[in-house]
Amino acid sequence: MAEAESSTDSTIPTHTKAWYYSEHGRPSDVLKFDPNWPLPQLKHDQVLIKVIAVSLNPVDYKRMHGEFKDTDPYLPIVPGFDVAGTVVKVGGEVRKFKVGDEVYGDINEEGLSNLKILGTLSEYTVAEEKLLAHKPSNLSFIEAASIPLALETALEGFEHAQFSAGKSVLVLGGAGGVGSYAIQLAKHVYKASKIAATASTGKLELLREIGVDFPIDYTKYNFEDLPEKYDLVYDAVGQTDRAFKAIKEGGKVVTIVPPGYPQAIFFALTSKGSNLEKLRPYFESGQVKPILDPKTPLPFSQLIEAISYLETSRATGKVVIYPIL
């Protein structure tokens, strides 16, 4: 694709501060900081974003560990999928955004392949117009950054499962990023008849607050041994083999954890800014809310600690990095 016309504005940067890794491994071993990472030329369908906040996702550390080397072989890499920030430059064919707009989105269109070399853990990043949406005016940049990948994943799972009003759902990992949005979508968008979800003891109250009818403490109960069965089990944690014991006859299991499982619906997200726009009214009305981990936000300088914390699987909702103070 042709490049955008070069800008005459001397304030447009050519380089950016960024975290990167040039070999696969543990974050504490491989992540390094570069104060002068070169920015790519802007293409006609792209915008340049001044990054204000970034949320972390499990895919970030899984990618760092090399789990996707077959489809994501390139190094070095600036990690990061989710971003919230302001537009500082637009490509020649961009129509939806202008300089100064507040935007958010998941900048990788395909969840596990064709991933960008320049991710969002950077002072500036680049994304295609179609992957972004206008930030809801009632949300902070920190809140908005927590939304895109997790919300879009939760939505796409319901779409793959052809979920509809009046059906029941069990969400495995209800207090996590995807799980907490799956619960809220089931309640407010899909009008589920009953919502159950698993979490540890201290997170059961959160589940109730966001719409769960039947919170299950996984430290005390095996969800598959309980008498209640569901039309859909939404597996956000990788317990798909057990999930089949919790569905009604004709029920479905959807999972986001590779490699999936026979008979389950496994998918990797296809990012679309249009899905964020479609769900915007639910955030503006306060029906659907971002769930932020108590440690959030963490400063850009503490990225390694933040990713290491996410790896413990103890985070509640989303962990957000706030690079630009």
Automatic annotation (TrEMBL):
SMART domains reported for this sequence: PKS_ER (SM00829)
SUPFAM superfamilies in the cross-refs: GroES-like, NAD(P)-binding Rossmann-fold domains
Keyword Isomerase: no
One Pfam family of this chain: ADH_zinc_N_2
InterPro entries cross-referenced by the UniProt entry: ADH-like_N, AOR-like, ER, GroES-like_sf, NAD(P)-bd_dom_sf, Quin_OxRdtase/zeta-crystal_CS
UniProt-listed PROSITE patterns: QOR_ZETA_CRYSTAL
Domain Enoyl reductase (ER): residue ranges: 26-321
Keywords: NAD, Oxidoreductase
UniProt GO molecular function: oxidoreductase activity, acting on the CH-CH group of donors, NAD or NADP as acceptor; zinc ion binding
Similarity-based family: Belongs to the zinc-containing alcohol dehydrogenase family. Quinone oxidoreductase subfamily.
Protein name: Alcohol dehydrogenase
